[in-house]
Design brief:
The chain is of the alpha+beta class and about 290 residues long. The protein has twelve helices and eight strands.
Length: about 290
């Protein structure tokens, strides 16, 4: 049996490490010296645990404590994100998360029951929750990738928010209560947080629990634009800010706002702003950045 250690995965002084598995192959029984939260994006399979084999599918959350033994088999199109969390980060409990209900189902502090004797926590979440988690993970990964000033602080903050969000769902699967949520506002907020990502109509329908016609009416009523025109406008406004406020080259800015092809981005930008990205920077770029 393999015993995986944190040093094999990351050396930076940050509390977490991410591994995107696409696909997740069958993986032999193993243990590790860090906490692991697996979020299943797609597919189905079988989770091997000391208490028996447990099926899993898209939307499943699997929380494994240090020393616990588990593995995967019968993987069928499984895509998942592994979030590995340093044991020291949990033990320090800086934000006193351990005071929250059912915390011990996720994490165990020092001097408590041996984690390998506790059952592995596994539960299913709604599509809406999965979208929110993916947005949080994207924010953390962007901090780690770009490393702006204070990125380690922001990474820790986002991680705490993610853990808190999971604990809220675990304690109340209907969180947030559907009768207290304005689905239209949720839909617009989702687009505004994720405009850089490839979003399909199916994504919007699943997230909002609306039909296609309702999604189209909602965007037109609130924003004045169809959903993907609204997304394009968000991208253009974000690009214009980067052009005027940074020295990033146009290819990087195109990538930052969601375009893989800088030439296509430039055409879209010219159509929207009536000038090229280069001309926009020349006219509106801050002088202390241009010099």
């Amino acid at each position: 049996m393999n015993n995986l250690t944190a040093q094999k995965f990351w050396t930076e002084n940050i509390p977490c490490h991410f591994e995107f598995r696409n696909p997740q192959p069958p993986f032999p029984v193993h243990s590790h010296n860090f906490y692991e939260i697996a979020i299943v994006y797609k597919g189905k399979g079988t989770h091997i645990t000391p208490d028996g084999d447990i099926p899993f599918k898209a939307g499943e959350i699997i929380v494994v404590k240090p020393g616990q033994i588990h593995g995967y088999k019968d993987c069928d199109g499984v895509v998942l994100m592994n979030i590995m969390i340093r044991s020291k980060f949990i033990e320090e409990d800086a934000m006193e998360l351990s005071n929250l209900p059912k915390y011990n189902d996720f994490f165990v502090l020092a001097k408590r029951d041996s984690p390998e004797k506790m059952p592995i926590t596994q539960f299913n979440i709604k599509t809406m929750h999965l979208f929110e988690l993916r947005a949080m993970i994207d924010s953390i990964q962007e901090e780690i990738s770009r490393q702006p000033i204070g990125w380690t602080i922001n990474t820790t903050t986002y991680l705490i928010q993610l853990i808190l969000y999971l604990l809220r769902i675990y304690n109340s699967p209907s969180y947030p209560e559907t009768d207290s949520v304005n689905h239209a506002d949720m839909l617009i907020n989702y687009m505004e947080k994720n405009f850089r990502s490839d979003i399909s109509m199916q994504d919007l329908m699943e997230y909002s629990n609306m039909s296609e016609s309702s999604v189209l009416r909602t965007f037109k009523r609130i924003t004045g634009y169809p959903p993907f025109e609204y997304q394009m406008r968000q991208r253009m406004f974000a690009a214009s800010r980067e052009l005027s406020d940074t020295k990033l080259d146009i290819t990087q800015i195109a990538y930052d706002v969601g375009y893989n092809d800088s030439n296509y981005f430039s055409r879209c930008f010219k159509k929207f702003m009536n000038m090229t990205p280069r001309d926009y920077r020349s006219q509106f770029g801050k002088k202390d950045i241009q010099n």
